[in-house]
Amino acid sequence: MPRYSQFSKGTKAGVLGSILGIVLSLGLMFVPLGRSEVCTSDGGCSVVREPSGIDYILGVNGADPALVFWSLFILGFALIGGYGAWNENRSLVWLTALALLALTLLGIASIGPFVAPAALLFLLAGIWLRHDHKSESSGRSLPRS
Questions:
Q1: Beta bridge partners of 35
Q2: pLDDT digits over 94-144, tens only?
Q3: Which of 80, 82, 86, 101 has the smallest set of CB atoms within 10 Å of its CB?
């Protein structure tokens, strides 16, 4: 069984970002994002939950397909970035970091603040994986002639 301490800090940050992205994705898919109050003409009011992403798949009227799309987008990149971090593949980690950072900036008024922590963890993982790789290769001394 691998020990947790043997992994580099870039791998740890990438795996943590992946877990956070998966949790965020599942939250978008299954958790209703709000509630609204509906009042009738006879004066009766009731609280109605907003549809979640799974409601669109199930065919509920008024459900937003964007929740499903962004949930699958985040899930896909979280899995790709987690795989890249686990295998210390910096290019996959950077691809994930840039995609999630773009989503953070484009959705700054809506979904961006939720995606930002995962994007920053992947950004740190990309930087730390690069640094760890450089420090391993620069630690060797060249033979003198």
A1: 49
A2: 999 999 999 999 999 988 999 999 999 999 999 998 665 554 544 444 454
A3: 86
HEC states along 65-129? HHHHHHHHHHHHHHHHHHHHHHCCCHHHHHHHHHHHHHHHHHCCCCCHHHHHHHHHHHHHHHHHH
Residues 6+ apart with CB under 8 A from 12: 4
- Terminal-to-terminal C-alpha distance of the chain: 44
pLDDT in tens, 68-103: 999 999 999 999 999 999 999 999 999 999 999 999
Query: If we measure between CA atoms, which residue out of 141, 34, 8, 1 comes closest to residue 87?
Result: 8
pTM across the whole model: 0.78
CA dihedral of residues 22, 47, 110, 96 (deg, nearest 10): 10
Let me know: does 112 contact 103? Beta carbons within 8 Å: yes
What's the angle, vertex CA 78, arms to CA 75 and CA 80, rounded to 5?
A: 110
> Residue 136 is which amino acid?
E
Confidence bin at 2 (pLDDT 50/70/90): low
